[in-house]
Amino acid sequence: MARGPDSMPQWAILVVLTTMGTAVTAATNPGLLTRISQKGLDYACQKGVAMLQKELEKIKIPDFSGNFKIQHLGKGYYSFYSMTILGFQLPSPQIRLEPQLSQWQV
């Protein structure tokens, strides 16, 4: 099997990741420290709402119909078909951390 020029960058990335993984596991106290700011949460919320809007545009609402009875007036019939979502808007989407619940310690 011949290797093309595209296989070299993948090989180099694999070597770098293996080297980094070995260096991290060789440390005496491996760990992970992350910090999430409100600005980061706002960005995640903005991207999440945009993704949700795109997904809602793809949803197909199934057709449905039925009948009902109104006392003294008689029977009625309803049928909904080819329904689509034309717009979607959240009033004010927000993500916030609870101060007492957002700390984790070992």
From TrEMBL:
Record flagged with keyword Amino-acid biosynthesis: no
Signal peptide: 1-26
Coiled coil, from the record: none
GO biological process: defense response to Gram-negative bacterium; innate immune response; lipopolysaccharide-mediated signaling pathway; negative regulation of interleukin-6 production; negative regulation of interleukin-8 production; negative regulation of macrophage activation; negative regulation of tumor necrosis factor production
Subunit description: Monomer. Homodimer; disulfide-linked.
Free-text domain note: The N-terminal region may be exposed to the interior of the granule, whereas the C-terminal portion may be embedded in the membrane. During phagocytosis and degranulation, proteases may be released and activated and cleave BPI at the junction of the N- and C-terminal portions of the molecule, providing controlled release of the N-terminal antibacterial fragment when bacteria are ingested.
Name of the protein in question: Bactericidal permeability-increasing protein
Originating organism: Marmota monax
